[in-house]
Amino acid sequence: MEGLNKLTADELIEKLNNKEITSGQIVSCLSKRIKEIDSKVKAYVRFEDKLASWPVSQLASSNDNRQTGKPANRQTDILRGIPISIKDNICTEGYDTECCSKILEGFKPPYDATVIRKLKEAGATILETKTNMDEFAFGSSTENSFFGPTHNPWDLDCVPGGSSGGSAAAVAADEAIWALGSDTGGSIRQPASFCGVVGLKPTYGRVSRYGLIAFASSLDQIGAITKDVRDCAFLMKIISGYDPLDSTSVNIEVPDYTKSLGMDIKGIKIAIPKEYFIEGMEPEVKSALREAIKKLKALGCECSEISLPHTEYAVPVYYIIATAEASSNLARFDGVQYGLRYKNSRTCEPANLIDMYKKTRGEGFGEEAKRRIILGTFALSHGYYDAYYLRALKVRTLIKQDFEQAFLEFDCIITPTSPTPAFKIGEKIEDPLKMYLSDIYTISVNLTGIPGISIPCGFTKKGLPVGMQILAKPFAEEMLFRVAYTYEQNTSWHKMRPKL
Amino acid sequence: MAIPNEAGRKGVASGSRRATENVSEVGITKETVEYVAHLARIELKPEELEKLSGQLQDIINFIDKLKKLDVNNVNPTSHILALENVFREDTARESLPVDKVLMNAPCRKGNFFVVPKIIE
C-alpha cells in the first residue's frame, strides 16, 4: 500500500476499521517518506542511529501493545496503531528524550508523560525518533537545536518556525500523520502557520504537563499539530483531561470536540484587535487575513474591531516571566542525576561541586539557553525582583483584563499568527530581540492562559503559508473547532502540500 | 502601537535595531553578567561574556518600557487559574523503583549518585 503517509488520521482510521490496511503498512509508508526526504527537511533527530532497525522497532512496540501489553495499556484502541510523532521535550519511557540539548544527551526517561500514556491506552504507536525543536523550547525558529535547524518543507532555505518546528515540518511534509508539540509563547501555533498546518494550544490546565520537560510552568501546554481541524479535535480529545500528577491541571470534563465540527457559525461574534494589524507587518499577511475575515463574514460571522490596549507590553512581560521561570526550571540540569556531567580531560572528574555545576552547564547549554537563564536569574535577583519580575506579573494582570473585557461581548478573537511568513534560516538568529518580536501575536495567549488555534489561510506570492489565529475564552476549545472547521471546509488551504 | 515602530526599529519585518530610543538606567556590565552567571552556576567563556553583556543590555532597554505603566493598584498574576492549595491524601503510594531512578546516573555506586565532595 503506497502513500498512506499522505492521509489524515481520520482517513486512516476508516481504512483500518474496514481492514483495508494495517498499522504496520502506515509505519512503512512513513519510514519510506522519512528516508526519502528527511535529509533535506531534518524534521527528526537522532534518526540515523535508528535507520537500520526503523520501523521494525516501532512495529514491535505496537504489537506488544496489542498482545502482551499490560492490561492498563490499550484501553480503547480507537487509534488502532496509528503512529504519532513526538517533540523531543515530552518524556517517553525508555526512548531518548533530550530537548535537543547537549546537556540531556542520552537521557532515557524512566516514565511516560501522561499524554503518552493516554495515547498508548488509545492504541497509538509512539514513534521512538523524536521531532526537532529549539533547545528547551527556547526559540521561534528551531535554529537553536543542538542538532541544527529544521528546514521549512515549503522553502528549504526558510525556517519552519519554532520551537515545535520539527513536528510542524514533519506534518507538512507528510513525514508524520500527526504530532505533539508544546507551546509556551507560540511554539505550536507559529510553526503551524509557517508550515501551513493546524496547531492548537489548549487552555492552560486542559492538558497535563506531567512528563513535559518544563520551560515556564505557568505558560507551558502540550498541544496538537495536524493536517486538518478534524484530526486536531480528535487528538485533543485523547490527550486532554485532569491529571492528579499535575497539580496545575483542571478537573473539568473534556467534551467530544469532534461534535463541534460542522456546527453553524452564523451570528458568531468575532473581534479583530486593531493593535494586531500594524504598520510593520508583512503586507501579504495583512491581505491574507483581510480575505479570511471577508470569508468568515460571508459565512455569517459578525466581525468588529476592538482594542487590546496593553498589547505592546506583552513581549517584555513574557521575556521576564518566561525567562525567570526557565531559570528556576533549568536549575535541575546540574550533572548530578542525568545527562551530561563535565569531566576534566586530565583528571576525568570535576574538581569540586561548584566546578561540576558551572562547567556542566557552561558546556551543556547552548547560547540561547544561557541567555535566557541569565536574563531570568537577573530579573529575580535581589534588587531587581520588584522592578522586573513583580512588575511583569502586574502587567500580566492588565493584559488578562483586556482579554476578559473582549470576551464579555465576543465569542472569539481573530489575529494573524505571525507578522511575517517563514523567514530565511540565519536571518534573525544573530539578533535575539528581533527574534523575540516575532512572537508578538502568540505570546498574550500564554500569558492569559486562553486557548488558541492557528489554521492556514493563504499563501504569499513566493508560496509561503500564512496562518490565521483564532482565540477563545478559557475552556472554550469547542468554539475554536467550530469556527476553524467551517472556515477550513469552505477553503482548500488544508489540501495543499509542498512539492517535496 | 509602539513595538514595531520604535525608533531604529522600522517594522517587525525589517529594519536595523541598533539605535533604540529607550535606554535603561540599569547598566548591564560584564561584571553584572559574570555575577549573575555565577548565581546561575554557568561558566561563560570570555567571548560569551562579551556578547551576552551587549545583548542583555539591549533586551533590558527594551523591557524597561514596562516602567511607563502605573501598576500601583494592580495585583500580580502568578497563576492564571483560580486554583488554590492543591493537595493529595497523605498516604504512601507506589513510586519509581530505585533502578529506574538511577538508570541515567552519570556516576553511580550501589543505590547512590556519586558526586564530588560537598563538605570538606
What does this structure look like?
The complex is a heterodimer of chains A (500) and B (120). With 500 residues, chain A is of the alpha/beta class. Chain A has a domain of 257 residues: Amidase signature (AS) enzymes (Alpha-Beta Complex), CATH 3.90.1300.10. In chain A, 36% of the residues lie in helices and 10% in strands. Chain A has 15 helices and ten strands. In chain A, strands 2-1-3-5-4-9-10-8-6-7 form a ten-stranded mixed β-sheet, sandwiched between helices. In chain A, strand 9 and strand 10 form a beta hairpin. The longest helix of chain A has 24 residues. By secondary structure, chain B is mostly helical. Chain B has a domain of 69 residues: Histone, subunit A (Orthogonal Bundle). Chain B has a two-stranded antiparallel ribbon with strand order 1-2. In chain B, a hairpin with a 2-residue loop joins strand 1 and strand 2. In chain B, helix 2 crosses helix 3. Chain B is flat. Chain B starts with a helix and ends in a 7-residue tail after the last strand. The N terminus of chain B is likely disordered.
**Helix/strand order of chain A:** HHHEHEHEHEEHEHEHHHHEHHEEH
Spatial shape of chain A:
globular
Strand order of the largest sheet of chain A: 2-1-3-5-4-9-10-8-6-7
Helical element count of chain B?
A: 4
Beta content of chain B comes to: under 5%
Q: Which strand order do you get reading across the main beta sheet of chain B? A: 1-2
CATH topology of the domain at 1-69 in chain B: Histone, subunit A
Give the uncertain stretches of chain B in residue-range form: 1-20
Q: Say which CATH homologous superfamily of the domain at 4-260 in chain A is assigned.
A: Amidase signature (AS) domain
Calculate the mean pLDDT score of chain B and round it: 81
Oligomer state equals heterodimer
